[in-house]
Design a protein that fits this description.
Subcellular location: Cytoplasm
Largest sheet: 6 strands, mixed
Number of strands: 8
CATH superfamily: D-tyrosyl-tRNA(Tyr) deacylase
InterPro entries: Daa-tRNA_deacyls_DTD, DTD-like_sf
Oligomer: single chain
CATH topology: D-tyrosyl-trna(Tyr) Deacylase, Chain: A
CATH architecture: 3-Layer(bba) Sandwich
Helix content: 10-25%
Motif (Gly-cisPro motif, important for rejection of L-amino acids): 137-138
Number of helices: 2
Subunit structure: Homodimer.
Number of domains: 1
Distance between the termini: 12 Å
Pfam families: Tyr_Deacylase (PF02580)
CATH class: Alpha Beta
Length: 149
């Protein structure tokens, strides 16, 4: 499971002009599910992200998590995080999970975040979404549950 995590001042996602999720302050998480991912990957990544210390403390050091600062999450499914661009010019998505399994693990990730008290806004799985965000910093992290980077 892979995530691109961005610290944001605000964000929202719309599908066909309707807001489906929003975050007034916190983290925008683009989440990709790989074909070998399990519930354990969802749990690991949720715990890692909600406790990741990428918010500044009083000394302007990155010492606080989204939980510490009372922020929320906006989680967007994005299978393209498993796009392999090493050969040719068209990405291969063969390492991405099948839609049914990806949706299940995406929902499991959201549930794990909710279980630790996080407010989570979401997009719509497999929908064409418009994501609007005001990045803060910017601070952007790449996280992989298999620890490949």
């Amino acid at each position: 499971m892979r995530a691109v995590v961005q610290r944001i001042k605000e964000g929202k996602v719309t599908v066909e002009g309707e807001i489906t999720g929003e975050c007034n302050f916190g983290l925008l998480v683009y989440l990709g599910v790989g074909r070998e991912d399990t519930v354990e990957d969802a749990k690991y990544l949720a715990e890692k992200i909600v406790n990741l210390r990428i918010f500044e403390d009083q000394e302007e050091k990155l010492n606080l998590s989204v939980k510490d600062v009372g922020g929320s999450l906006l989680v967007i499914s994005q299978f393209t995080l498993f796009g392999d661009c090493r050969k040719g010019r068209r990405p291969s998505f063969s390492e991405a999970a099948k839609p049914d399994e990806a949706d299940y693990l995406y929902q499991e990730f959201v549930r794990c975040c909710n279980d630790v008290g996080m407010t989570v806004g979401t997009g719509v799985f497999q929908a064409h979404m418009m994501v609007h965000a005001i990045n803060d910093g910017p601070v952007t992290m790449l996280i992989d549950s298999k620890k490949t980077f």
